[in-house]
């Protein structure tokens, strides 16, 4: 016995004859869209061929992603500082030098590809905060900021908690010099 190939039929309207698909009304017609990656940006193209961005390649430097991630991590309550012990000590000295400015990328390392990025953060938390909650909040805030500002997909954010700032510890930046 020969089998007939299966055929799919689209929904029919009540006014269309049997086997005929009624055309969609104007309110049901949606322009076809597709997404195409161009460099590290995503360009949305509708069926008419119009583009939402100009053609070409956009490259984003590692330092740009580092700055965005550093600022986003510092915004989270419970984060005292970024960076490991030696980096924070040297940074505190550098910050006190006239004309020196804070380094927002301290404690942030990134790898940036064409469409994706991965980040490693070294943080110091304040005493008494739940570390898993702070790490989760840092991860979410960094992912949201980097993806929103760069269009890159964040594939991972690794967080190392290197220290805890105790209430009676004097912050390096506020410590007075022993010599004048």
Structural commentary:
The N terminus and C terminus are likely disordered. 25% of the residues lie in helices and 25% in strands. The relative contact order is 0.15. The strands form two sheets. Strands 3, 4, 5 and 6 form a four-stranded mixed beta sheet that branches. It has a two-stranded antiparallel sheet with strand order 1-2. The chain has three helices and six strands, in the order ββαβαββαβ. It has 180 residues and is of the alpha+beta class. β5, α3 and β6 form a beta-alpha-beta unit.
| Order of helical and strand elements | EEHEHEEHE
Uncertain regions spanning at least 5 consecutive residues: 1-14, 23-51, 173-178
How many runs of DSSP E, i.e. beta strands? 6
Distance from first to last alpha carbon: 102 Å
Biggest β-sheet, characterized? 4 strands, mixed
Structural class: alpha+beta
Shape: globular
Question: How much of the polypeptide forms β-strand, as a percent range?
Answer: 25-35%
Rounded radius of gyration (Å): 27 Å
Rounded mean pLDDT is 73
Count helical runs: 3
In percent, how helical is the residue content? 25-40%
Which short descriptors sum up this protein?
25% helix; two-stranded antiparallel ribbon; alpha+beta; 4-stranded mixed sheet; disordered C terminus
Spell out the blueprint of helices and strands:
Elements: E1 33-38, E2 41-46, H1 62-74, E3 79-82, H2 85-96, E4 108-112, E5 116-126, H3 131-150, E6 153-165
Helix pairs in contact: 1-3
């Amino acid at each position: 016995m020969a089998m007939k190939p299966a055929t799919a039929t689209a929904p029919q309207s009540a006014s269309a004859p049997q086997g005929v698909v009624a055309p969609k009304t104007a309110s049901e017609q949606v322009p076809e869209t597709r997404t195409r990656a161009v460099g590290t940006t995503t360009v949305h193209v509708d069926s008419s061929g119009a583009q939402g961005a100009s053609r070409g390649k956009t490259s984003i430097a590692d330092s740009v992603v580092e700055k965005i991630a550093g600022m986003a991590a510092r915004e989270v309550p419970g984060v005292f500082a970024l960076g490991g012990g030696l980096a924070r000590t040297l940074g505190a000295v550098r910050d006190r030098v006239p004309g020196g400015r804070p380094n927002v990328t301290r404690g942030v390392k990134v790898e940036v590809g064409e469409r994706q990025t991965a980040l490693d953060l070294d943080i110091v938390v304040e005493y008494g905060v739940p570390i898993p909650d702070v790490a989760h909040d840092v991860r979410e805030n960094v992912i949201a900021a980097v993806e929103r500002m760069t269009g890159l997909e964040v594939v991972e954010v690794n967080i190392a908690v290197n220290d805890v700032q105790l209430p009676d510890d004097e912050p390096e930046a506020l410590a007075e010099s022993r010599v004048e």
